[in-house]
Design goal:
Strand content: 15-25%
Largest sheet: 8 strands, mixed
Number of strands: 18
Structural class: alpha+beta
Strand order of the largest sheet: 1-11-12-13-16-10-9-4
């Protein structure tokens, strides 16, 4: 959530930040300020009544001992107690209304984020590797997969529906090889591997910012308040919900493989063929908990860790910083890594690396102390794809295809898959 102290101290700054995100949130910000004012007045009133209640309560035994009639005082105390309860109930309602509005506000972009409306205003930071050139017209990955008999969306459509795939034979082995290669690579860099549950509760989805705004994009389990995870970011970040971390242990780094489930609401007609936009896909996620003073340095290193596995695979890619209008809801700054796809003749996103600053931590009450006597402070959370598996399979099939229809296996994967060519 956006810090209420920031809204209170500089509402115009927050309004401008929302407009830079293409969000007109003036009404919500004015509303939360009005609630905040009413809430603070009510709190002062409640404190005054409680103070009076405590003072009178101390007098009652003395008056009883002196034989005084305390019936009027007791009636006053009864009314005071009722007024305090009414005040507390009203405060609870105001707190709920304030939280509902705060949950609807996206994060404030970092000052280094370029202002823009959409993906056309994203800024390229660097390119690594040369796009693959072919002396023939390259085939798209779904055609390669069908010819090799390793990708089968038709059977998946029969069994489940559109935007699902069966991986077969070498296709399944390639997917598994990439997962293991990514996990091994990140573990060597100090990320602790975890294998999270694929189902989480509403509090976890709210904590990382998927709810309430993006509930239509989530797969909710019927007759329960459980959700299939859209990314391992959700369960892994929530591991430390309501905890105070030892500041000396920061940064804490996790890597996690998971299946991911997304309804892809509103994406009809986009990338409907192949592995680019599926309802179920695999991903290795990187999650960090960092000291606020170090979180942007950690964002750079996290992004580099995601880049390194693509470089090891010999895939050409570029890194772009997302503009304010294209950033995710919870992010303060995001780098997208886009891999070269020959059949598309362009770069496509394969990883997104973000610093959320204290936006998620405020929702989840994740704090740290450098010393046990210090006041607990909100930690900064970061995450990035390290990276998407299905899109890696697609990129390998397209960039390593041969004219005879076979696909060369990248050298770093050969020990995992046991062959140097899929044919």
């Amino acid at each position: 959530m956006v810090d209420m102290k920031l809204i209170r101290s500089d509402p115009q700054f927050v309004k401008t930040a929302m407009k830079n995100r293409n969000k007109d949130m003036d009404e919500q910000i004015d509303g939360v300020l009005a609630i905040d004012l009413e809430r603070r007045d009510l709190m002062a009133k409640a404190e005054a009544m409680k103070s009076k209640q405590n003072a009178v309560s101390r007098e009652i035994p003395q008056k009883k001992k002196a034989g005084e009639d305390i019936s009027a005082i007791m009636a006053e105390m009864k009314q005071l107690s009722d007024d305090i309860k009414a005040c507390d109930t009203a405060l609870q309602r105001l707190d709920e209304r304030q939280r509902d509005i705060l949950l609807s506000l996206p994060n404030v972009p970092h000052e280094s984020v370029p202002v823009g409306k959409d993906e056309n205003d994203n800024v390229e930071i660097r390119r690594v590797g040369e796009p693959t050139k072919f002396p023939y017209t390259p085939r798209p990955h779904w055609e390669i997969g069908e010819r090799l008999g390793i990708l089968d969306p038709e059977t998946a459509a029969k069994v489940t529906g559109a935007r699902f795939h069966f991986y077969k034979g070498a296709g399944a082995q390639l997917e598994r090889a990439i997962i293991n290669f990514y996990l091994d690579s990140h573990a060597k860099k100090g990320y602790q591997e975890v294998f999270p549950p694929f189902i989480v509760n509403r509090a976890s989805m709210t904590g990382t910012g998927q709810l309430p705004k993006f509930e239509e994009d989530a797969f909710k389990l019927e007759k329960s308040d459980y959700f299939l995870i859209p990314t391992a970011e959700v369960p892994v970040t929530n591991m430390h919900r309501d905890e105070i971390l030892d500041g000396a242990s920061l940064p804490i780094r996790y890597c996690a493989y998971s299946a991911c489930f997304r309804a892809e609401a509103g994406s009809a007609g986009r990338d409907t063929r192949g592995l680019i936009r599926q309802h179920q896909f695999n991903k290795v996620e990187l999650v960090k908990f960092a000291h606020p003073d170090e979180s942007y340095a950690e964002l750079e290193s996290l992004t580099k860790d995601a880049e390194d596995v693509l470089e090891a695979l010999g895939l050409a890619y570029r890194v772009v910083v997302l503009c304010t209008g294209d950033m995710g809801f919870a992010s303060a700054k995001t780098y997208d890594i886009e891999v070269w796809m020959p059949s598309y003749d362009r770069y496509l996103e394969i990883s997104s690396c973000s610093n959320f600053e204290d936006f998620q931590a405020r929702r989840m009450a994740i704090r740290y102390k450098m010393d046990r006597n210090d006041k607990a402070q909100l930690v900064h959370t970061l995450n990035g794809s390290g990276v998407a598996i299905g899109r890696t399979v697609a990129a390998i099939l397209e960039n390593y295809q041969n004219e005879d229809g076979s696909v060369t296996v990248p050298e770093v994967l050969r020990k995992y898959i046991g062959v140097d060519r899929i044919g």
